[in-house]
Design goal:
This protein has 6 helices and no strands. The protein is mostly helical and 113 residues long. The longest helix is centred in the N-terminal third of the chain and has 28 residues. It is elongated, with a radius of gyration of 30 Å. The model has no long low-confidence stretch (mean pLDDT 78).
Length: 113
């Protein structure tokens, strides 16, 4: 009799985590409103401390998470710069080295003119 009761208690104890795990995982996905508000405060604080203040572009990047934004700042090779490259394309001097600039733009033999 005692062995059956022990087996029953052990069975129930094993079933409780199996039943509770899906509910706990579902709750983790749904962030409460105060958590998102805390994330916004954290993002604003990070932008004030790590940049010259929040602007629309950085605020939008921080919406994906402050930790992800900081990681991007520490690894700039991961940042998509296509828009910047498009805007800088007309400025050919940015792609020239010093000797090419001197050859193309120094009209007189005197340096500095």
């Amino acid at each position: 009799m005692r062995l059956r009761r022990t087996q029953l208690v052990v069975s129930v104890l094993c079933l409780i985590p199996a039943y509770a795990a899906p509910q706990l995982l579902a709750r983790k996905k749904d962030k409460p409103p105060e958590a998102t508000q805390n994330e916004r405060k954290r993002a604003l604080h990070a932008l004030n401390r790590l940049t010259f203040g929040p602007v629309r572009e950085t605020s939008q990047q921080c919406e994906h998470g402050v930790d992800k934004w900081i990681d991007l700042q520490l690894h700039p090779d991961k940042i998509n710069d296509k828009a910047l490259e498009t805007r800088l394309a007309p400025f050919r001097t940015l792609r020239m080295d010093v000797h090419e600039i001197l050859d193309n733009f120094l009209t007189s033999g005197e340096p500095g003119r």
